[in-house]
Amino acid sequence: MTSDVSPLAAWLHRLDAVNLAQVLEARPDAASPPALRSASELADRLQRPGSVALALPRIPLPALQAAEALAALGTPAPRDALADLLGAVEGEAAQGLDAALHLLATHALVWPDSEDTLHMAAPLRRAWSAPLGLDAPLAVLLKDATSDDLRRMLMALGVRPPTTKPQRLAALLEHHGDPQRLADLIGRVPADTRTLLQRRADPAYRSQPPIVSGTPEPAPEPGARWALERGLLVRGRYGHGPVRMPAEVARALRGPGWHAPFDPVPPTPPLTPVSPAEVDAEASAAATVFAAHAASVLSVCATDPPARLKSGGVEARELTRAAKAARCEEAVVRLALETAYEAGLLARDGDRVVATDSYGSWAHLEPAERIPVLLHAWWTLALTPSQARDEDNKALPALAGAPSCTGCLQARQGLLSAASRLPAGQGAKNPADLGPLTHWSRPLAELLPQDATPFATVIREAELLGVLARGALSPLGAALLTGDAEELAAACRRLLPAATATARFGADLTAVVTGAPTARLVTLLDSVADRETSGTASVWRFSPGSVRRALDTGRGADSIETDLAAVAAGPLPQPLSYLITDTARGHGRVRVTPAACVIHSAEPALLAEIAAHRKLSGLGLRQLAPTVLVSRTPPEKTLAALRAEGYAPVAESADGTVCVERPRGHRATAPVPPPRSASTAPGARFRTATAPALADLTALATRLAAAPLTAPAPDPSDGVPYGTDTEEIIAEYARNLSHTDVRQLAQAVDEGTAVTIEYVATSGNRTIRTVSDLDLNPPYLDAWCHLRDDERVFTLSRIQGVMPA
């Protein structure tokens, strides 16, 4: 093992148990099994690119701005230099910088050393290709310059060139690193060169796209030669490649008064007074209406499952049908379908979306018990459920299985976090004004192309669910934000009224239910009437067609009246009783019998003989008249059966003419593949690996604080064995993995859990794969790949990194 210790590991080792617990709470993926043994191992996990990618979207705007400015400075960098670049030397800005750096340190993204010099996680630096619009420093841009190139630059600057290349590079860096000398040089540039440099130094400047191989390079812009000769602009080795401006030059051109963007204070939307009672009342009404609409939408799916497109998802026509049947807007249908699918109430079944067994239990719950299931699903969905348009303004299907969108998840969390920042007793005058505050809370959150204002779709979803009310965070939203399931259930019980089990029937043949109806009442009224509206009050209308629909299910007029009287708030109106009786009187006067074919003859005795023939009983014969039989068997098979028993029937066409049978030549038919069983269908082996339970963070932090800085690395020759045989085998073949990653992969193999790997394919492309059902087969790893939804074989030596799934 090398004696080098990373700066992050050294900083973590200096933290006490309380601060270590804060880091583990902010970065929970680093605390996943196998158990951490040292600060050095924790540092390895925190420096994984995938781990940093999980933490970055949760960072608010000032912390992200401070990190970008630090990336532009290059690390390690003094804190004072960062404060000077951000213009946060004193006052409120300085306090904001302290808070931002504290937050970054809590997430182990930026941390100070003992001399207050700031360090940054390497994967975080790579998040920006040109932080603050600045290119790389001069030392990086000139690493491939020849000694003659450096000599010519120094001579153009009036500096005597030293003899060796390192000395010449040091002299040039010293010249451009002196702000006064660089400012004097910039003051002497020709007019056309000054115009060029000022344009390139603008933070909004975008460099030219890369030059495609085989195309001629563009000619230098006017004034570029003077700057290239003096190192104010740099081109690649031998004068090829794009023209680039060193970071030192760009900052000097922006002037000493220029500061990087820094917004330590969140924007304040126009506010209006709102009492807790007003927020509760509006949240209660919205949640009640959505619970009723969701129940209606899922009832439609349970009785008439919507069809799926061949490409996946439920198309707009099916969404419109469900919206019409449930009497709600399409956005509510999308929201109900996506949250119900996430909650396991719906599932894809072939070319349909059907209700699951869980739906039956959910439908019989009280509204206050239904809505938490959908709220939690909305809060954890990795997409925006009511998004209806893509970047090209094309309609998107619902339940299309879109890729996971971390930015969509952060948009919801940022919105609720922004609303929680509003003063007590105040709400946004216009909920759309919460968009800028949401961006401040989660600057990397997803902005949808269909939104006219930032986060309009997410804000609308929150209002529909009762999470936002009167421009303020409701108790439902507060419970989601804290992640307390019991608090959410209690808020729902307090805000949502109990389901209504009775209806008021009117002489105009309507039934009105105030509040959310019970599942039994909905089932009864839907079976015998047509729903017209739903929400805080639901209305059903009776008609001959709706009553006939109930009679078709085998129910009688008396049972329908009895069931309706049992749920009526008063006596049933006489017009409704007359409607049921009159419709039942005409019901069944005409009957339709299924028949595959008809057998008729002028000889009743012959048909009676055929009907009584024991060997013909399989045809399903039934005598409707002395001269008419119907058969449940198709004509061809009926003819064959009759002829086999010695009868001589002839076939007739639909118009009564005799069919003349002509022999047909034999034709081979294409073989029909056998149906694919569920066990062999794609995805049959797919299973979602259960996330490992995290150890108690306080106890883990206490143990790490007392542990040595580094754990002994396995080395059998020194008597330090591997923890398990699996670790030893993986370490032998997976040479690109650190011991921390080896332990993580071995844990997944031994425990049967899923894991995410960074893999280099034989083509050289890097891919991220979540794999489960791992089977170690050195030098290969057999696994179920969740991306391909199939078994795949991975070469251990090509695995570059490991993370929890």
* Count of beta strands: 21
Radius of gyration (CA) equals 37 Å
| Mass-distribution shape | elongated
Beta-strand portion reads 5-15%
Kindly report the average pLDDT value.
85
The total of helices stands at 34
Q: How many domains in all?
A: 6
Distance between the termini: 28 Å
List low-confidence stretches. 208-217, 663-695
Largest beta sheet: strand ordering: 20-19-18-17-21
Proportion of residues in helical segments: 40-55%
Structural class: alpha+beta
Largest sheet: 5 strands, antiparallel
Plain-language structure description:
The protein is of the alpha+beta class and 805 residues long. It has six domains: 7-128, no CATH class; 138-206 and 225-254, no CATH class; 276-495, no CATH class; 504-586, no CATH class; 597-644; 712-804, SH3 type barrels, CATH 2.30.30. The chain is 44% helix and 11% strand. It has 34 helices and 21 strands. The strands form seven sheets. It has a five-stranded antiparallel sheet, covered by helices on one side. Strand 17 (755-760) and strand 18 (766-777) form a beta hairpin. Helix 16 (276-303) crosses helix 17 (316-326) and helix 28 packs antiparallel against helix 29 (574-586). It is elongated and about 125 Å long.
